[in-house]
Amino acid sequence: MPRPFVLPDLGEGLTEAEIVKVLVHEGDTIAEDAPLLEVETDKAQVEIPSPMSGQVEKIHVSAGQRVRVGMPLVTFSDAAVTAPPSPKAVRAQKMEPLPPSDARAGADVKAQPVRTHAAGTATRTGPVPATPSTRRLARELSIDLNVVHGGGPGGRITDDDVRAAASAPTATRDGRPSTAPRETAGQPVDARQAPASPAEPRPLATPLTQNVTAPPLPKFEQWGPIERQPLSHLRRTIAERMTLSATIIPHVTHFDRADITDLDALIRRNLDPARERGVTLTLTSFLLKSAALALVAHPQFNASLDAATGELILKRYHHLGVAVATERGLIVPVIRDVDRKPLIELARELADLATRLRAGKATLDDLRGGTFTVTNIGALGGTGAIPIINYPEVAILGVARAREEAIVRDGAIVPRLMLPLSLTFDHRVADGADGARFASDIVRRLEHPDQLLLGL
Fold first, then answer.
1. Annotated catalytic residue: which of 149, 251, 427, 448?
2. Is 254 annotated in the active site?
């Protein structure tokens, strides 16, 4: 009688899994507890054993497919029915993730060196009765389960059986026990010692990037007239980079405000003297200087994360990008060594760069090498914004329009010019407290413009 096997309750609130690999074929005859499928949940990648013995009549899933709890996976014909695995058993199996080498090779262990048990042991035919964790231990110790005697109920092979086989003398080709030391991953190992690691080295880290495919769009013309406009090359580039950043970086944003009353007064007092020197003083140059000096004290925000190696790349230079709106779209030119340049030089360089950019004369070098970005939308209005990080940077400072507000100072209500700030950063490299301290450092510098002029 055909009997379907469905995805069992995975526990811990998990409701679905992705099929990584199907380890059997239609028509195969397998035993209870034989490897059936590899699935991946939000918690781990695990091997699901067969809940019964019998012939595989129909496979309902394929690699890459997402299935929910209760959906059929495999249908058995002529099944020797046993009790389905309990949720507790499945949860126990789920907590045994496969090593990276097993995740690639699945149940195929032919490529690994396999030790045979002592001479005289009969080789088992057919699937081996062993749990996924025991199979994993056997792969790590390079033990062939087909020649291991099972001491568990019904001949099931246990972890102790595998360890006993690992410590037993190995057999030579003529059937006599060998006294030579065994090898694991090509290195001799004392027969009395268990290997400390799997045969294949584990990678230091795995890339954190994941591919996301958008579902197909509906036919909008069924509801009314439409028009299709091709994206420009620049807009395509912006879209790709924003999608990349939003996909792989866990964004978190800290909001703050700076009292720039004194800074605004300083800029107004020096507008004419600066123009006589060919420079237009703007708030953006002070923002860049404040951010650069704060980055010196908070280097984790002047960095990039190498997810493949698990390393944070701290940059000992401070090249700041500043978002500039052009007719073609948003472009981020870079001003180098902002921490080392006087404010008047920064203002001149910023004005020259913006002019060349809007005239289409900026070079590729003008757009490369940034370590941190400042985007000031104050001229366009708004009370705040949450910008997307300019990958591979790890943070960006957003600035909205400053507004005069009634503020309590020393027990009196006074008008002050308040500037909204938003610091968005990569939560993988910094915590909320780190972001708050970094933002406070920027605020402090903006509120003491005399120190900024001195580069403090």
1. 427
2. no
